[in-house]
Amino acid sequence: MSGxxxxxxxxxxxxxxxxxxxxxxxxFIERSRRRGIVGNIYKxxxxxxxxxxxxxxxxxxxxxxxxxxxxxxxxxxxxxxEHTTISHLLQEGQTLVVQVTKDPIAxxxxxxxxxxxxxxxYLVYMPDSPHTGVSQRIEDExxxxxxxxxxxxxxxxxxxxxxxxxxIRTAAEGxxxxxxxxxxxxxxxxxxxxxxxxxxxxPPALLYDDLPLFIRTLxxxxxxxxERVRIDSRENYAKLKEFAKEFMPDVESCIEYYPGExxxxxxxxxxxxxxxxxxxxxxxxxxxxxxxxxxxxxxTIDVNTGGYxxxxxxxxxxxxxxxxxxxxxxxQLRLRNLGGIIIIDFIDMEELEHQRQVLRVxxxxxxxxxxxxxxxxxxxxxxxxxxxKRTRESLEQTLCEPCLTCQGRGTLxxxxxxxxxxxxxxxxxxxxxSPETYMVLxxxxxVDRLLDEESTAVADxxxxxxxxxxxxxxxxxxQEQYDIxxx
Length: 487
What we know:
The protein is α+β, with helices and mostly antiparallel strands.
C-alpha cells in the first residue's frame, strides 16, 4: 500500500489530504481565523465552579470560557470518591495551568485537563506524571520491552533533568537509543521554556502553542508506507524541510515542492472527494450505498443494497454488501472526522459467521485510524456501536453551517402546509381586526399553490369572512416564510 500527503497552503487556510493508493482517506482543514488549539497549554483563571456538575469554567482568553471536569483536575493516579468535589479542588479566581484536549465545537467551549503533556516525533513527555508507557498499537511484546528499556536508560542518564513520565508513540517502533535520546532532550528543552512562562505569565496567557497544521502533519501522520509529501508553498516547503532535517531526517527526502499549474488538490480528485464527503449518501462500488446522518449526540450509518442484486442468493448479496460497507465506513469516519457515538445499521445477516467476518473487516479497517476508537459486537437489535474520540470539529462542521431556511432540520414545510397556515392566520386576524382586505406576501411556490390547487379553498374562505384576499410574490422569501398585510 502506497501513501501520499498533499499540503495546500493559502493565506486563508491550510488543507492536508492523506491519500492511499490514489484514494483520499483523511482531510484536515484549518482556517487562519479559527485555528485548532488542541494541545495548547494556557495559564487561565477559574471563573465559575459548578458543584452540581463536578466541573468548572476557566477563562483561557478565548471567546467562550473552557470547561474542565473534576477527573481532569486531580492527579492522574489519585482516586476520586464521593467526598472529592470540585469545590475542594478549585475556587473562583484561582489561577490554573491547563491543556486543551478538545477544540470548541458548535456552542460548546474547549475541554481542558491539568494532566499536561508535550509531544515529539517518538515520545510524549508528561512532566507531572511518573508513568512510562508504550503505545498499544505496538503489539510485539519484545519490541515493547526493548523500547521501555531504552527510554528508562535515557532517563537514568539524565539524572534529575527528566522528572515525570513518558509515553512511547507508535512511530518509535524499530528506532534506536540515539533517536529516542534526541527526542527526550528536545522535549526537556521545550518544557523548560513552558515552565519559565508558567511562573512569569499573567492569566489568561498562552504558554505553549502546538505546531502549525502542515508541520504537525509531518510529526503525527507520517508512516512507513507514505512515500511522498507534496506542498505547494515554496516558503513553507523550506520550513518543512528544515523541521524534517532537525527532527525527522529519515523523511526529509520524501518532501517535494509542487510548482504545477494544476491545483494540488485536483490530483487524485481530492476536491471532488471532499465535496462528496459533505453529502448524506455514499455510493458503494457494488451498487449499494450508505446513508450517514450526523446529529449533536451521535452519528447513524445505514447500509443498503441499492442496485446490487448479487449472483447467488439473498444472504450472499447482503453479506458482500456489508463487507464492502465495513471498509467504506471506516474510511468515512476518518475522512469526515466523525466522533462520539456512531451507530451502524448493517443489513440483517442470518448466519453468525457472516456477522463475525463483517465485524472483523470493520475492526481491521479501524486499526488504521489515528483517533482512538472502540467497537462493540452486534446488539440484540442488529446494530453495531462504535465510539471514536472527538478532538476537533467534523468536516461538515468545519465547512458548513445550519440552513437558515430550515434551521438545520434538513426539511421544509410543503407549500400545502404553508397555505393552510395562512388560512388559519387569516381567520385569527379576522376575529381580532376585521379589515377590508387581506394581502398575502409569500414565495412563488406558495402563491402558485394558492391560486391553482387551493383556489376553491380561497374562494370558500373569502365567502366565509366576506372579504377579498390578494396575493403578492416576494422573490426573496423562503418556502416557509409569509406575511399577511391588513388593508
